[in-house]
Design a protein that fits this description.
437 residues, alpha+beta, five-stranded mixed sheet, two-stranded antiparallel sheet, elongated
Amino acid sequence: MTTLSSGFARARRWLRAHPLAFDATLAFGTLVAMICGSFTDPGDGHGPPAFGARTPELFSVFLMALSAAALVLRRRRPMQVLAVTAALAAVEYVLMDPPAPVVMSTVIALYTVASRTDRPTTWRVGLLTMGGLTAAAMVFGSTPWYSQENFGVFAWTGLAGAAGDAVRSRRAFVDAIRERAERAERTREEEARRRVAEERLRIARDLHDVVAHHIALVNVQAGVAAHVMDKRPDQAKEALAHVRDASRSALNELRVTVGLLRQQGDPEAPTEPAPGLAVLGELVATFRNAGLPVEVACAEGGERLPAAVDLAAYRVIQEALTNVRKHAGAGARAEVSVVRVGATVEVTVLDNGRGSAGRLPGAGQGGGAGPGADDDGLDSGGHGLIGMRERVTALGGALTAGPRYGGGFRVHAILPVEARTGEPDRPGTAGGTGLCR
């Protein structure tokens, strides 16, 4: 039994994969059924039908073969097949007595039309087919108009239209469910990502509140300690203890909150210090080893830059030299200068390259895109000069990039030493590094 069921399932899958073969098999089966039915005499209705009591005419066999052959194309031309089979059945009712069951092919064709069209079309075509064939059987047949054979034509054609419409409705319902499930599957991950982003934004707001509260508390207590340090050292020690407790609490809450922001698969937090201009020589050496001659002009001295400005200057030079290496072409040279001008630091990267690929037009207009604007920079998040500009703008500075007169390219960044960093402009600033070493 298991072998039989598995064989039937394989045959059904094969026929579904080859619809033309299925229709040909259906047409052959319908022809066999029609021929067998043409040998049956239904009698006068008072007894069982007698098989072999009559023999079909050659013309009837011809009509049955034509109508069965038309069913092979029922999927491709459903309306045309219905019209052909209905016409052949009508001809059989008009010319032959008793008629052969050519109407069986019409029933299958009407089912196909109903299952592949809409309901209004099914009603119109179905009623026309039912009425036409029933009228032909009643008017031209030798039996009384109220005989069961005539009403059987009406019943079978009506049943075919209703069954086809039901199959079409169920198929549309199943397709709608499947499409809804697929759409839900597609949007589930998007919805999950959206909710995660909202949750991370909420945690970020909490993080801001935590930092603002504890920093304000540390600021107040530090001010108190500085005010009473000379006259009331005990009170100053107490204020410093509050500063220590507030900073420890802030660090703990930051650790917990940032831990919530991390996702599975995120890279571990780096433990090495952030790079800066103090290691500019090592950066330049990597490009020189890669075949790009680089000259560096950097102001010497004991002045220190805030950590954020120092890192931004380093990243600007890194990205600019990367783009020179990618797009300037063979034989290009680069010049790097870092100069302190008043309350700002100016970083300039020049090259004499002749390459133009990747140097987008309009780069010098309002700090527009330049070389590598669509390339993956070393620390630009894949946005080239766009990432550099965002980094510089976040510190209150400005960045311009564009072609040089006579060839080459120029990247110029102005970084304020004090703006948005909150660090005093004096030597020995905690957390800063020298301008160049």
